[in-house]
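[[Encoded backbone]]
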Amino acid sequence: MHDEFDQAFWEEQYRAHEGGEHAELNPVLVAETADLEPGIALDAGCGEGATAIWLASRGWRVTAVDIASTALGRARDRAELAGAEVKSRIEWVHADLTTWQPKRDHFDLVSALYVHTAEAQEKQVGRLSSAVAPGGTLLIVGHGPSDPNHALPPRARFTAEELASTLDPGVWDVAVAETRARSAIGYGGDEISLRDAVLRARKRA
């Protein structure tokens, strides 16, 4: 195991666990986007497809991108089970987010949940934020510095305030930048406590 967060790393991660263990819908996503008017969404680092499928079921048209073909295969299978209408609203893209360039000023929602890549957080936020359309929403959720997951390297942790500081205040209105506690079920089936860094911002129209 290594922590370079490249394709080999993520393929190993997904192949080491049965399908579905990475497929739970994130409650922060629901809380922060449920009231948004459906439009065009980018699900960056889509994993096994929970976010993309939920958004599509609510009327969004979703571009779902992930570096791991194993994850995308499982995501496509889950979308099939969700029905033809949901499936038709999702475009699955196998790509490395460090080199894949999304359309600029295009998406009404850009969502990145626990996305770890080989590049610096600031560069990743810059690429993702540039893809948000005027009036659109950027949602980033990750592991805060106080998160108890000790397997994570330090560079995989950040505060929402750190990310918010990289956004141009003349362009962005930051609605949420905080650490939020929640419970989840770990791989062993035990309940664990997480500390999420949550950033939600709106690009001015």
Q: What stands out?
A: The first strand starts at residue 40 and ends at 44.
